[in-house]
């Protein structure tokens, strides 16, 4: 979608430069642009695009809401500290279907950035509220975002080959938000690690682990004689230690 908008804007600029190219066929790009500028021809353009062939009736659950889909798969390996609740992402492998990428370097960067944003969503960025709805998570002392040390120790990203997308510019696919959800692989890896830790203590069956999987939640899920001393509090009476009611 975005690529088509960019293409539309580029086509507008190309048409504006055609007279200058025709007048100076041996010139270079910089020459044509400079001449156009001196002739007061606009060198900026906006693109607009309406995706054809889409439409969806939510009441009937029928139709085609999107032109195409962007797919990806991820696998993460984590290590948790059962005593502190801390964790470390040892390795993440991602394969992303972006059709025929227009610029693999940029796309891989987008995938890595989207993944790390999702990592914060699933493991660190906890919103804390008072019983009356006041937001307590209003600064870096309470609200944590990913840092350099949170990047997986081994981070492998590859683009799927041989899967062109006929619905977009040069068989490519857009990428931005889709890799965010791939970070759920870290959350579920943490949950598997907790499951193994609990099994070593003879604890079986289901247990509660809400996202984000913060250090406190990981620690409390690794039940032992210490956590048994701290029953789960009533959320309606919870007040962070550093906030005065």
Structure description:
Helix 1 (2-23) crosses helix 2 (29-38). The chain has helices at 2-23, 29-38, 104-123, 184-200, 215-221; strands at 55-57, 62-64, 71-80, 87-97, 154-159. The strands form 2 sheets. Strands 3-4-5 form a 3-stranded mixed β-sheet. The longest helix has 22 residues, at 2-23. The protein is elongated. It folds into 2 domains: 1-50, no CATH class; 73-229, Aldehyde Oxidoreductase, domain 4. A hairpin with a 6-residue loop joins strand 3 and strand 4. It is an alpha+beta fold and 245 residues long. 31% of the residues lie in helices and 13% in strands. This is Aldehyde oxidase/xanthine dehydrogenase second molybdopterin binding domain-containing protein.
Helix content class: 25-40%
CATH topology of the largest domain: Aldehyde Oxidoreductase, domain 4
Number of domains: 2
Give the radius of gyration. Answer: 26 Å
CATH homologous superfamily identity of the largest domain = Aldehyde oxidase/xanthine dehydrogenase, molybdopterin binding domain
**Main sheet summary:** 3 strands, mixed
**How many H/I helical runs?**
5
Domain Aldehyde oxidase/xanthine dehydrogenase second molybdopterin binding: 7-152
Protein name: Aldehyde oxidase/xanthine dehydrogenase second molybdopterin binding domain-containing protein
Pfam families: MoCoBD_2
InterPro entries: Ald_Oxase/xanthine_DH-like, AldOxase/xan_DH_MoCoBD2, AldOxase/xan_DH_Mopterin-bd_sf
